[in-house]
Design goal:
- By secondary structure, the chain is an alpha/beta fold.
- The protein has 12 helices and 41 strands.
- 24% of the residues lie in helices and 27% in strands.
Amino acid sequence: PLYKSIPFFMSSYRYGIFLDNTYKTEFKFGTESRDYYSFEAPGGEMIYYFIFGKDYKEIMKQYVDLTGKPIMPPKWALGFAQCRGLLTSEKLSYEIAEGYRKRGIPCDVIYQDIGWTQYLQDFEWRKGNYENPKKMLVDLKDMGFKVVVSQDPVISQANKRQWEEADRLGYLVKDSTDGKSYDMPWPWGGNCGVVDFTLPAVADWWGTYQQKPIDDGIAGFWTDMGEPAWSNEEQTERLVMKHHLGMHDEIHNVYGLTWDKVVKEQFEKRNPDRRVFQMTRAAFAGLQRYTFGWTGDCGNGDDVTQGWGQMANQIPVLLSAGLGIIPFTTCDITGYCGDIEDYPAMAELYTRWIQMGAFNPLSRIHHEGNVAVEPWLFGEESEKNAKTAIELKYRLLPYIYTYAREAHETGLPLMRPMFLEYPADMETFSTDAQFMFGSELLVAPVVKKGARNKNVYLPEGTWIDYNNKHTAYSGEQWMTVDAPLNTIPMFVKQGSIIPQMPVMNYTDEKLVYPVTFEIFPAAAGSETTFSLYEDAGTDLGYLRGEFMRTPITCQTTDKGYTLKVGTRTGEKYSLPGQRNLMFCIYTEQMPKTALLDGQKIKKTNVGKLEENRETEFTITAWCPDKKQETCLLRLPDDGKEHIIEFIY
């Protein structure tokens, strides 16, 4: 009955178990005995891997060595996306796109849900809904939008030409009782044949069909209903389905993975050197090699305004997904389920959904049917708060993209349960309502109705309120923090560097821009580091070493701060233009002098420092801002090593 079956778990005794079996497995933790647990499968071979590691990260790395490295999404996929169940028309796509741009709310992706096609799954635009889909895709691209369309793993019998073709070629799953193509009742489109992706010959056939909308200009797919839908343990009659590689009881859990493999490999075969975007609902262990994920229907269908518990539950679901190596994932922001009849009554819950969803690696706003959930529909205050949360994500994109690279290399997710970073702190085991975002940021979204504060656990170290940048708290304590409706409780660990970019309408609106490094200095005698990762963002160069890193180090001394901009590494990728690096050091004690490579730097004011920072690349200057308790620096990025000393 699961969307995704990943038979892998980790123990606090520093090991992991991966059961490599595709049948319906059962894990019994404490239900049979207090002394042991067990796992079992009704068929297949009993192959499992015992993975020992010094901590959870090491165990996960070994699991990735077994099951494959995650692919990196195109950079635009890390922005915000908008969808709804009946977003299946040219007219509505234009309206939503114009709504975002008119209001200056950042957004990168517009989805087209099931129903964009004439038939399942012919990949032809539905007549009457789309007058000129190629022009629509060009127009939306000019506005900075990528379009992602759904695909289902079935051929509708109403789609006579394609169904007869698939039936004749033997590309549909068979009914073992009569040897014919299995007749699957489907939620949409009437009875269908289920495509047998375990048959090698199907790949090129499917790839030819899915290439049609790619050639028209779409940017990617979301593979939906790949369980395949309704085929679960309640419908045991479905077990008569016979795939090329086995009966359905063996294939069910891995069916979505076989489909995702075909989608990805056919995409790359026909679109060389282009990153695939594929977000999937159904999958098995190892999906990270082919696809990204979302958690599926997750709201309160009985009363959408009472979906607080469902929203809260998405945090542990997303964190668990990350531990199972789905580092790039999202929930359906708003919960997907239920009619919204009173938008003002939904405004608070909507705001908190957006705030939590801004920290999903892939952030998609989505609701069922024709229920509109664009930010401007919930009132002026809600729109403003939603925009603030979305803009925060866009500012953090350099930080997010650096951790996307780490996810590719190690499997470590961007959203991390607290115990992944603090495995020795037993208090972190029960912190399901907060998480680490990368290693430096702690995020604690509000998930309770009417709440204007939040109970947060701070682990070891000193933590700074990221919303005001100056209030510091000692770690290893629970505390209650203020959380008005316009605020996401966030903390940054002392001794952190957070790279940021200017807010844009979409991720690649500007190919080159100033990068700002927020520096929260370590204690005296210590240093903090961050290595900014950058690449072209849409091609496969990241697999060929075509990327660069800019290492930044800030050492705290008795005399002030020594900032080192390391030599840029990476010869195969270069920036598409000139830029400035901006630094903001949060400090109560203001330096009196600044030196660049031993030479005194010109002191200026904040206004002058910011002036023409996107067009003028010859100015090096600094500014002590006593009012904001910040020390600011502007430095042209020449890729070379520089030492900057700030002296009290």
